[in-house]
Amino acid sequence: MTTARHDGHDGTVIGEDRDARAVLDDATTGRGALVVGPLGSGKTHLVRAVVALMRDAGLDPLVLRAAAPLASLPQGVLDDEGVARLDAASPAAPLVVVVDDAEDLDDTTVDRLVRGLARGSVHLVLAIAPRRDGEPAHAVAVRARLVDLWLAHRLVRHDLREPERADADALVDAFGGGHPLDRATRRILVARARGSRTVLRELVAEAVRRDRAGGDPLELPLDLVEVPGLRDALTVEAVTFGPAVREALVVLRHLPGLPYSEACLVLGAERVDGLVTRRLAMVDDGPRRGLYVRRLTALVVEQQLDDAAVEGVLAGVERYVLERATGPVSDVLASFVVARASVRSPDEGWNAAHPSTWARLVVGAARYANSTGRHERSLAWTTMPGVPAAAPEVLLERTVALLALREDARARAELERVEPERLGPTSLLRYVRCWTDLVRWVPPDARVEVPTFPEQVRGVARAELVLLRAERAALTLDWDRALIAARHALDGAAHPRTAVRAAALATFAAVVLGAHPEAERLARETRALLRDPVGGRTVGLDDELWALCTLAAAAALGGHRPDDLEDWVVACTLAAGVRGGPAEVGLVNVAWACLAFDRGDGAAVVEELAAAASRVPAGRAGVLRALLVCALGSSRAALGDDTGARRALATAPAEHRAFPLVDMAARVVEAWPAAHDATSVDLTPVRAAVAAAPRLERIVQRLTVTGGRVGIAPDADGGASVPGRVDAVLSDRELEVALLVGQGLTNREVADRLVLSVRTVESHVYHACRKLGIPSRRELARVVVTTGVGRRG
Fold first, then answer.
1. Which of 33, 56, 257, 784 has the fewest C-beta atoms under 10 angstroms from its C-beta?
2. Could you count the other beta carbons within 10 Å of the beta carbon of residue 469?
3. How far apart are CA 129 and CA 460, in angstroms?
4. φ, ψ for residue 744 (rounded to 5)?
5. What is the pLDDT of residues 227-279, one digit of tens each?
6. Cα angle, residue 315 at apex, residues 309 and 316 outer, rounded to 5°
7. DSSP state string for 24-55
8. Cα distance between residue 452 and residue 54, in whole Å
9. How far is CA 309 from CA 304, 440, 453, 529, in A?
């Protein structure tokens, strides 16, 4: 890594194979230098460093950028002054010419430079990129001429490589002037720059400005006039696109996530593949294979077109959809059509003539808006004129939006009107999850009531409800019950998304209980469940991020870290930056915080958790949101920031504060100042505070401090019996009854054996099932057998 800094110049060169001094020496000793590197390898910044060194040495180089906007000038990239300087050059006083993007030079300029090099009147520094698919024939020819000069030993070649991960971090530090940015933001900025250091520099500057103003550093203004440097950097690239590419970028900017197959129908397969080849768009590897465009470039392209041209392109897509609306269209296209129709009068639109098809499009649009976090829009669309307000799909999407907006009373009223027997299979799962979301934050001592679900969804509903019990048990710090319920939800999950969440929560609960071997097994099972075994694609971004956060937290607390954990975090960061919104990026922040915790970097932990708390809405992520707030408060307290710790806990919504998990975090925050009074960290006050919380007597004794960070040590027996700790949940009589049930005895036989009435046995079975979070007597027998509780003692 080479870094050259010069006053008045941005000479940062990071991730290079050759330094600026070597390039300068080659350019001033009779031959020229040819700098070759792919997009993102730092050619432009290396050239700037070379120019800075030349000027420090008293040279006055002629600096050119062979960009297409300048190619229309009479003398190519040379203006009149440049032509005069080039013509006046002589071997006695050679002129140093530095050209970036030299493959875009016009033929006249190339001829002049080659003749000057042959006469010795010109010294050259030329920067070119390797050949790209689909580039103009002229660029191919110019590159061939420059390569011939290298083969003829007239130019010395310097090959550059793309920056490594550490180099990218160093670039962000250099461009940000040392301003701290969380890791998720850093990775996403590098990805958005698509390898261009010029774009990255402007992106980092804008991110720092927004962060200092108290906003999200990843949020960019829709009008790039506010950041002219970024606009100019993108314009240089965007102006080279042909009309077909421009139209495709405009369409995909308005249709993020459009399925690849449908994009090929709308835009043409060749055009779509061309965008992907040029890295202007990417295809998500999820189940839908959604297409995501490079949004910044697309925005600049749209600003270069007049309003009439943009409207013509978008109207063409709308006509395409409406002509085929009698058949299925994706939710993305439905959302696009409904959004355009919503700003027009109902009487002038296509919706009035086709009410049933219009209602189907609105449902798809509302579903898409809910899935992308735009719940106000979904709510507005489901109340539009012409939409059947009592249709079950409409009521369901309205309920999802109201739940996300924390209007629980209205959501329950809408959900009770839904007729589940009229819903399709996918909507039935959403129906079940609406009920579980509705009762998730009911106070822990309140009775949770849900309806009787239709037969076709009863298995899915049962697993979701058991998973809900596991989450509520975690919020009440009853980790034994949380583990048993999560494992049961995993065994009975009829949907892969339920299985993923259950396995992840079971992993975390096993770590808290000290069952590290069991936690490692469950972690492997979670990773396996995340991907379709046939196609290898992920179940979904939200569920993958949920599992990532949970497994990363378990790894940090339990001391077992998978070898590929950081690579997985990086991959999810890029996916969240392209496909997700602030909430998804916030979940990635949680994972980065766990990595920082694992290496003992308390300041980085607080930085990442603070970014996550600002991005993840209070109503999202269930138990993860509560854990996030508690972890942020505790981490700030551990660094001595008592005020910040109390402020963090105060952000917990009222419904979260009713649970013992948040109460325990408040106790820890109050206890940390006493722990810091000692020369080294003394956990005695923290242990005393945590021990006052219910059900934590066994756990608190295993709190450890290693390298200044808190962890949870395994049980002395390795935690082998923890997953079956049924005896820690049941009373002695309930356990006795459960053991006999596990041996296959009927209630009558159990009553005879224990000299009890059948009704008393039934009561014990009922209470045992309720405490363990399982639905039936048969499941009670299975839990007793599989956990091995009968073999203990």
1. 56
2. 25
3. 54
4. 95, 10
5. 777 887 777 677 767 788 888 999 998 998 899 888 998 888 888 888 887 77
6. 95
7. HHHHTTTSEEEEE--TTS-HHHHHHHHHHHHH
8. 79
9. 10, 49, 51, 47
